[in-house]
Amino acid sequence: MKEIGSEYEYGSFKVGKNEYIDLVDCPKRYVLSGRTGLYLVANEIKREKIDSIALPSYCCFSMIKPFLDLNFKIEFYDKYFLPSTKAILIMDYFGFLSNDTITFAKKCSKNNKIIIVDATQTAFSRSIIYNYANYIIVSYRKWFDCLCSVVYSNSGFKSKEPSKKFDDFEKNWRKASKLKKQYLNNSSISKDTFLDLYALANTQLKENYKNYKASIEEIEKLKKIDTNYIRNKRRKNAEILIKGLKKHKILMFDKLGENDCPLFVPILLEKSKKDKIRDELIKNNVYCPCHWPIESKMLQKKTKYHDEELSLICDQRYNEKDMNRILKIIEKNL
Question: Which region holds residue 95: left if phi is over 0, alpha if psi is between -120 and 50, else beta?
Fold first, then answer.
């Protein structure tokens, strides 16, 4: 049975033109990962004598850690509540743009907040919010097999550009992606071989992520992504899932905006029901992540989304038949 989801195999995109290579027209740097980019931004604003930041309550611990590592005071805010901190991180979720987020960014701008936009989840969506950002971070590893992130600064950078390369991480992750490609092409390779390598690479990055640049090879790969193909495939797949699930009223977003490019199609279910459906999907070789698990003993503010959210796969590797397979499994277990 065809496998759907999990980490990206080698060549998980079509070569063409990247029409989203510049989200804004301002200085930018290529770095290894999203958390590397957040650490760079944290360093930049620390130079401005800013030592506190507001982060959305619904976020991943990897977004929090760079600020903790630089001894920032963290304040979590719920939907569109204006915090007391000088700096604030804002984002839209799963590739779906919200007018409320833009309104909130305008409000923060009027109140002279330093606005950091994490655009990882809206990497291929045209958003007005970028015009209000002092800094933008976008990571591409969640979209296809590309170990590259970009940081934009509307006033340039004061810190030194990262010069280190994380060869071990890149080598292990890239080897895993090539082995997975062989596995999907019916090679006799054991699945554990590449899963163990992915796990090793992800652990390496978790423990050692600061001040790394992206390699020239990964930057060149990013420049050659066919973004029209990605947008068209993801939008078509997402529309099938949304149409099929709308009647069940479990969608976090029940329509696709003109500028949206979905990263996933998120659904919300009572935790026990979510866990059951996720298990059934796994039994049928469909691997859907939950964003984001609460890490024990870590500084996080729990929301209902941490317990209830399940991200349905809709990416460019798959087609209508695959989406209908996902729908069938979910509907059978609702």
Answer: left
